[in-house]
Amino acid sequence: MIEEKLNEVTTARGLIIAAVTIFDEAIDHLINKVFRKTDFVVESVIESLFEHSGPLFDFKIRLKVLLGLGVISKEIFEDINAFIKLKEIINNQEQEASFSDPMFLKFIQQLHCIKESLFIKDPIPDPKATDSLLEQVKIIRWEKMIRSYLILSILHINEALQIESPL
């Protein structure tokens, strides 16, 4: 289902926004597993923390709580934060982001879930050099590889969030 959502998205901005949304939903589900109890007293106190005005309503705060409790690893925490920062950068840009933008290569290289896999050895094609058909094909190939790496990293992080409560 998540793969289908990600495959429907065609833009770089859309993919990053979809990733952060997926992580937000997974974190919310994990928080529910960890904190939501059926005991009335516990439930009434916990509910107030997660309401719109509660201190644990913010996605970044919930992420830090899960890290602090040892529910998620430092690597997953850092990777999700990297996606959040990239989303903020992309949303502040006037132009539509492209997968051939060098910032995506830098972004992927900093992800922990990608470091252990093989990575792209081809040089980054010059997006301005679209005068030849060969250059256009290289750019399209590069963008597909970057998109694939991003989707794989999103799936890896989401899978890491699909755990049972250790508490």
From TrEMBL:
Pfam families: MtlR. GO terms for biological process: negative regulation of DNA-templated transcription. It comes from the Bacteria. Transmembrane segments: none annotated. SUPFAM superfamilies: MtlR-like. Coiled coil: none annotated. PANTHER family: FUMARASE E-RELATED (PTHR37941). This is Mannitol repressor protein.
